[in-house]
Structure formats: structure tokens, C-alpha cells
């Protein structure tokens, strides 16, 4: 029992390190470095890079980080956004553009307040940031549970990558100094981590492809995004995801002329 309690405490302590910062297809090493600097200013240390254009390690990033990459910011590399969020139970996508996906839209204040409550229960949280030129694409946004938008002058809404990371980091640090987190009813045992959700999506999409639902081909990407958005909004638990996978498997067996188990 004591060992279980210690494991639980270690999990919660790791989660309380703040949200992971996921940079999707960043273009310049300097921008990765300044983002890392902004992170460490406010105590964030989990930096994940997805397909960094200028590669890694990067001397320009090291220089621009002003020591942040040596003093505590940990960098991990991923080939896909799906892999970068696999261990996260809650993901926010930063974007200022209107999307054709229906998702909750939050400010940094409300998103961080929610994420701190989730972290306090042991869940892991991350924030997606897009590349400097065009931001996140719709496929990446579809993987998020909510959209995070910074209120800015609507006539000039452009924020560079490091500024966006700094604003989120500042709000996290401010709230950790001023208020206790509001712990939700859901715990890390309840929420489905990213890898379980992606596994379900890919399972469902394979079967929909085999049954001709995702047709015609030119409409498939938008259909997939919309289907994923439905389930992302639901905030599925791990047990619910496993139940849904069982439902899909049962329907496939029945359609193939086999009796359900």
C-alpha cells in the first residue's frame, strides 16, 4: 500500500511540472531557442519538437536560448504530432484563426486554470504551437481537446512563436503563485491518454475505410478531422475508449457474418 501511495505521489509531482510545450514544424532554430528561454522564465521544462525544419541539435537554438537549454529545458524529438501527445490526457491547440472544427475556445487564463486542476489530480497536459509561417494545420488542431486563443488587437493579431509560448508560460506561473488549483472530479485513471485515443481513431478509420464510408478520397481528410473532433470534445475516459473499440470490433465481426463473442 505504501509503495502504491509513493508511486501516486511521484506521478502527481511529475505532472505538476506544468504543461508540455509542443512545437509543431518550427522553422528556425533561433525561434526554438527563444521559446525555450520563455519556458524556463516561467518554470516550464518539457519541450517537444515535431519535425523541426532545421534539425536537432541546433547551434542557433542553443545560442538564442540564453542557457535555458542547458539549465533545465528538456527537449524530445518526434516525427508525428500524435506521438508527441501520446502520454497526455489534455491538449490545447494555440491558434488565432477561425476553424471549421467545433471545439471549446479558451483564453490562457481559463485553459491554465483547467489544466492546473487536471495536473493536480495527476493528469498530463500539453499545448500545441504551430510553425512560424502558418501555425497549426487542421489535422493537428483536430487532435486537441480545446483551442487556446490569446485576446489581442483584432486588427493586428500576429504573435511570434516565442511570444505565444511566453504568454502561456506567464499565465501558468502567475496562477501557481496566486491560487490553489481547482481539482476536477476526473483523475488520471479516468482520462484517456493520447496514445489510447489515437489507437481508437486509427482503428475506427481503418474499419470505415474498409466499409467505404470515408469516400470520396478527396473528402476523407475533412471527414476524419470531423470524426476525431466529435470524440475529442467528449473528454473520453480510458474505459470509454476501450468500450468504443469493443463496439467497433463487435460490429465488424457481425458485418463479416460472425456472431458476437
Please name the defining characteristics of this protein:
Alpha/beta knot, alpha/beta, 7 strands, 7-stranded parallel sheet, 11% strand, SpoU_MeTrfase, RNA methyltransferase, Helicase, Ruva Protein, domain 3, 261 residues, disordered N terminus
Describe the structure concisely for a colleague:
The chain is an alpha/beta fold and 261 residues long. It has helices spanning 2-15, 29-41, 59-64, 68-71, 81-84, 108-120, 138-141, 161-178, 194-210, 220-234, 238-255; strands spanning 20-24, 46-50, 74-78, 90-94, 105-106, 125-129, 146-148.
In one word, what is the shape? globular
Instruction: Compute the CA-based radius of gyration.
Output: 19 Å
As for the number of domains, it is 2
CATH topology annotation of the largest domain: Alpha/beta knot
How far apart, in Å, are the first and last alpha carbons? Answer: 37 Å
What's the CATH H-level homologous superfamily of the largest domain?
SPOUT methyltransferase, trefoil knot domain
Assess the beta-strand content as a share of residues.
Answer: 5-15%
Largest sheet: 7 strands, parallel
Domain tRNA/rRNA methyltransferase SpoU type: 20-170
Keywords: Methyltransferase, S-adenosyl-L-methionine, Transferase
GO cellular component, one term: cytosol
InterPro entries: Alpha/beta_knot_MTases, RNA_MeTrfase_TrmJ/LasT, SpoU_MeTrfase, tRNA_m1G_MTases_N
Amino acid at each position: 500500500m505504501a509503495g502504491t501511495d509513493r508511486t501516486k505521489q511521484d506521478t502527481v509531482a511529475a505532472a505538476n511540472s506544468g504543461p508540455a510545450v509542443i512545437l509543431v514544424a518550427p522553422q528556425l532554430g533561433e525561434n526554438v531557442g527563444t521559446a525555450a528561454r520563455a519556458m524556463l522564465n516561467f518554470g516550464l521544462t518539457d519541450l517537444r519538437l515535431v519535425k523541426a525544419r532545421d534539425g536537432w541539435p541546433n547551434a542557433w537554438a542553443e545560442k538564442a536560448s540564453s542557457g535555458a537549454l542547458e539549465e533545465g529545458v528538456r527537449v524530445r524529438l518526434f516525427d508525428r504530432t500524435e506521438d508527441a501527445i501520446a502520454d497526455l490526457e489534455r491538449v490545447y491547440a494555440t491558434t488565432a484563426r477561425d476553424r471549421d472544427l467545433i471545439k471549446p475556445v479558451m483564453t490562457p487564463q481559463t485553459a491554465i486554470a483547467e489544466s492546473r486542476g487536471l495536473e493536480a489530480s495527476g493528469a498530463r497536459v500539453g499545448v500545441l504551437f504551430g510553425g512560424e509561417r502558418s501555425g497549426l494545420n487542421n489535422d493537428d488542431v483536430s487532435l486537441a481537446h480545446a483551442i487556446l486563443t490569446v485576446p489581442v488587437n483584432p486588427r493586428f493579431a500576429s504573435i511570434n512563436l516565442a511570444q505565444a509560448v511566453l504568454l502561456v508560460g506567464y499565465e501558468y506561473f502567475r496562477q501557481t503563485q496566486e491560487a490553489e488549483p481547482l481539482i476536477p472530479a476526473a483523475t488520471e485513471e479516468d482520462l484517456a491518454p493520447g496514445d489510447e485515443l489515437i489507437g481508437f481513431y486509427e482503428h475506427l478509420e481503418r474499419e470505415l475505410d474498409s466499409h467505404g464510408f470515408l469516400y470520396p478520397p478527396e473528402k476523407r481528410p475533412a471527414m476524419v478531422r470531423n470524426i476525431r473532433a466529435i470524440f475529442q470534445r467528449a473528454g473520453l475516459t480510458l474505459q470509454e475508449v476501450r468500450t468504443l473499440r469493443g463496439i467497433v470490433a463487435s460490429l465488424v465481426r457481425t458485418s463479416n457474418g460472425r456472431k458476437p463473442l
